[in-house]
Prior knowledge:
single chain, alpha+beta, D-Maltodextrin-Binding Protein, domain 2, Dipeptide-binding Protein, domain 3
Amino acid sequence: MKDEEVRRVLEAVEQGHLDRRTFVQRAAALGVGASTFGALAGTAVASSGAVLASPIPGPPYKRGKRGGVGSVAWPDKTVTYDPPLAYDLGGYYGLANFFRGLMAFDGKSNPQLDLASSMDISGDGKRYRFKLKKGVTFHNGREVTASDFKYTFERSSSKQIGSWVQGFLTSVQGHAAFAAGKTKQIPGIKVIDKYTLELRLTKPDVTIPGVLATPPFFVLPQEEVKKQGKNFTFNPVGTGPFKMEKWDKGGSRYTAVRNPDYVYGKTLPYFDELDWQWNVPETLEYLRVKSGKLDATGGNLGSAPSIVAQLRASKNPDYKEWPSFSIQWFELNTTQAPFDDVRVRRAVNYAVNKPRLQSLFIQPTGHFFPPNLLGYNPALKTYGYDPEKAKSLLKQAGATGVELTIPILDGGTGRIEQLLQQDLQQVGFKVKLVKDQASVYDLGSKLATKYPLWYKGWGMGLPDPSELVSSLIGTGAPSNYSGWGNKAIDKLGGQATAITNRGKRGSTYAAIEKILLAEAPFIFLGVSTWVTMHSKRLQNFVWEPVLYEHWDRSWAS
């Protein structure tokens, strides 16, 4: 009976009736995990059932032309190239220039094999075994081994690093004790031999392939990280398509050159060099592209509405608007009045006139989950614009005339804070805006000691709702600064990663968002529309919602 069901699943994939992620989950339920993943990812499948690597994973790349310099600019004042510590746009979305991992996302945000030559999943879904490609080297010339991946995974999960991905491998045996600083290693990460790595889990976890495709799990050389310490961010040593050539701190730019020993070096990258700039406002990015001084914008031109209006009117073919997994919200300090009262939290959600957000290129869904994400339920009731209901709730809570100070944090234009100020004043709050030179991630948990609420954005690194639980809304999650937590969400989130049936898993996450909206620890806004412009000479400008721009596969005409 199982063989017949497997045959039907394979036929559904071949005919395009079954998406890749559903295929993985269906396969796991049938106990044939790895072989089905290989089929869906376009990889070869060995007779043993292990998955064999595809030629080059990722978005389209063929028929490129080698040579020249590619240039891009980003708005961040500083950038970071230590993968688990990179939060800025110009840093995080440039990590793939220098680093690679066991897995990589394709153009549709599905995980594929990369530095792993094969992957095998046990029948019970509790063991992932990876065979590494032999001969892959770091930029310093040393060959990559399974021990390097163990070191990298443990470093990204460590209490000392405190990364946003610290909880991504919670299903691995011994992770909890390690993340709490009680043990020196994660015993469930096993080095079988030089080229074989195993992850042994406490329960099935269908998120593992996607987790390992995110940059904080891209392999690092332990000796370089230890030798350079904090300077590693300026001298990234990985296995990626480019090598750092020159870091110009004063000029806010670096030059990277093609890595001749890159694992896909016979084909990629096409550019000889990258000119990567930061501390360049979006409006200036646009002007530099327009004048031919840059090949592409990195920051979101949606933050400059007047420019986008001109580009729309001109029907410029090099201007693009992209759907994203970039969530936008205001986070509330739920540990103190007035937002320790759920009625006040709901009131401020009713107070916001969300359709106005479209002028800031925010799709005002009123959800926390982005559309197209597993668990997004378009029928879920959200907070509509109802200032009278907001006033009624505030009166019930005895919270009329409350004074609020809202920060405009580093990198913010203040436009969205000004809209919120207007809406909250309309329902009776007294609102003052102040500028703060620190960013939301500079302050982190200290935000709750300074402000009652703050604007926050998050570009999802893992296109799976498990990231939202482990990083943002779970009790004590590393980037949950609100002080809020919910035991039901924690329990459902822990259960969801082990569910192999896509429909049931989606329903579980939909239940999580329903609880979240009811408890309202945030003012729910929506998701950004990402807007870019590139030069006419730039070919195959590739953008996708997980890793954004892929500079290893663009070229100049």
